[in-house]
Structure formats: structure tokens, C-alpha cells
Amino acid sequence: MSNVLEQIGAYGIVPVVVINKIEEAKPLAKALCDGGLPVAEVTFRTACAKEAISIMAKEFPEMLIGAGTVLTTEQVDEAVEAGAKFIVSPGLNPKVVKYCVDKGIPVTPGCANPSDIEQAIELGLNVVKIFPAEAVGGIKLIKSMAGPYTNMKFMPTGGINAKNLNDYLSFDRIIACGGSWMVDPSLVAAGEFDKITEMTREAVTQMLGFELAHVGINAESEAAASEIAAGFDGLFNTSIKEGNSSIFAGKGIEVMKSPYLGAKGHIAYKTNYIERAVAYLKAKGVKINEESAKYNAKGKLAAIYLEEEIGGFAIHLLQK
């Protein structure tokens, strides 16, 4: 999988946008960035699509801009010339796919059945778009097709919204979902870019599902940690669970046996997708303490701290 597609996977959601007027390009790009999704698939359905991509790419270089509804090799050239970093098409056109593959341009063609996927494999792809996802069978179809095609990953688009987003993303063979609910054309036409920012932020919040996990308290010694944990247990009947470096009083309080990160301790937040949460925070300019990363037995990121403290507490993320 290309670096660009890995980056798309880190964002989790690809807003699919239709721009009818060139003056809509800049404020729409800003709205997506402000909402926490610096990525967009600009459809080549309108006359100003190429210019829109160019403006968005120049004004917001941090954005990952792609071109959608690409039907010809000529459109591929126009999109890449404008600044598009990836190509998406509604169906699998072997000529267009081969053209992109030969030029090293990431491309995800639309597939709807096993025959399409086998064509994609023959053309050297390991990621395809499933379109129109809900209409052709949704997540059940994707899981069924994933069985025999063990190396294929998917980017479903079509009929995906805030309610069913995590039904798709919870399947680890799906790298991201394309969606347009947060960039409804009526909102764009009305210039309601603040609303688009709000809906984008809501989509990201729904995807990441941040929840307070526990509060960590730095104790000076193991004996002090035992006393603190016992105090919580005595008050609230929390039960005590002792580990190598800390003692838990219930699920909400962790007492460190010796001072760790954070002047006062730490606060842990659980998230549905920790790697996407890290990408989201980095896009907001948050610095991550990469050295604090912990991985599970499968080599997947399980926990990581942010660099800055809040109120004397270090902040760290946990995979749910």
C-alpha cells in the first residue's frame, strides 16, 4: 500500500466534495481542516474541478487532495497537474488503472463484486473502492469478499454516514470510508462553511469515540501507592488490582508506585482507533511523545502519551 493510501487510512474518513463555483474551494478546504479532516476527494463532475484542486493544494499544502469520478487518462493528467495526490474512479477501467499504476499514481477504482476485485489484483492493486457500498451490500458484502482475497483492503463509499461509519471502520480490512454527509452540496452552495466545520468535527468525534479511561496519580513509593489506593477502596469499595508499576483502585484510579510522566500524574483517554487519533491530533498541531509508545502482541499501537501536560497531568491515549 502506498504512503498516500496509508495516510488516508490514518484519517479514516475522506470527504467527497463537489465544487460548482471556484470561490467555494478555499473556504471549503479551510472548513475541513478546521474540522479535523485535512483530506478531500474533489470530484471531476464539474467544470471547475481542476482549478479547485489547484487552489486547495496551494492554499492548504498540509491537505491531502485527491480527484474523484476520474473516467479518462486525460483527467488523470489534469488532476495530477493541479496537485491531486490520488485518483478515485466509480468503476474499474483497466486503461485508467494501468495508466496510473505505470506512472506511480495511487488509484482506487470502484469495485462491486469479486470479478472487479480480481481485475484489480491482476492490475497490481491491493486497495479498491467499494461503490456504491450500501447499495451493493454494505459491510456484510465487504466481509464476505475479504475472505478469499486476503491481501485486499477496501475504501467503501456510497451511503455511508455518521450512523454506520464505525460499522465499516471497525473491520480492519477497511482503510477509510468516503462520505459526503459533512459536505452536503446544499451547505456548500449556501456558504454555510461554519456548519461544515461543525459536521466534520462531529464526524471525527464519532469515529474516534474518545472516552475518559482513568486518572493516574503519582505516588512517591510503592507503600504510598498502596495507601492511596486503599483510601479509594475504603471510601468507594472500588477493589484493588496491583500491577508491576501501579495499583488500580477500581477502573478509574491508577496509582503509580513511583513518579512517572506528568507533574501530578496522568489522564488516560480511550479511543476506537488510536492511530487515527494520533493523526487527528497531529493535524491539530499537537506534539506526540513518540518514545512513550507501547505496542500489543500483534505489533499494533496500544498506548501513547502527548508531549504537553494539562494542569500538571500528562495525557495519554489507549486503544479500546
UniProtKB/TrEMBL annotation:
Keywords, in A-Z order: Carbohydrate metabolism, Lyase
Annotated metabolic or biological route of this protein: Carbohydrate acid metabolism; 2-dehydro-3-deoxy-D-gluconate degradation; D-glyceraldehyde 3-phosphate and pyruvate from 2-dehydro-3-deoxy-D-gluconate: step 2/2
Reactions catalysed according to its record: 2-dehydro-3-deoxy-6-phospho-D-gluconate = D-glyceraldehyde 3-phosphate + pyruvate
Pfam families with a match to the protein in the record: Aldolase (PF01081)
InterPro entries, sorted: Aldlse_KDPG_KHG, Aldolase_TIM, Glyas_Bleomycin-R_OHBP_Dase, KDPG/KHG_AS_1
Organism for this UniProt entry: Cellulosilyticum lentocellum (strain ATCC 49066 / DSM 5427 / NCIMB 11756 / RHM5)
Transmembrane parts of this sequence: none
EC class of the enzyme, as a word: lyase
Oligomeric and partner information: Homotrimer.
Similarity comment: Belongs to the KHG/KDPG aldolase family.
SUPFAM superfamilies: Aldolase
Protein name per Swiss-Prot or TrEMBL: 2-dehydro-3-deoxy-phosphogluconate aldolase
Entry EC no(s): 4.1.2.14
GO molecular function: 2-dehydro-3-deoxy-phosphogluconate aldolase activity
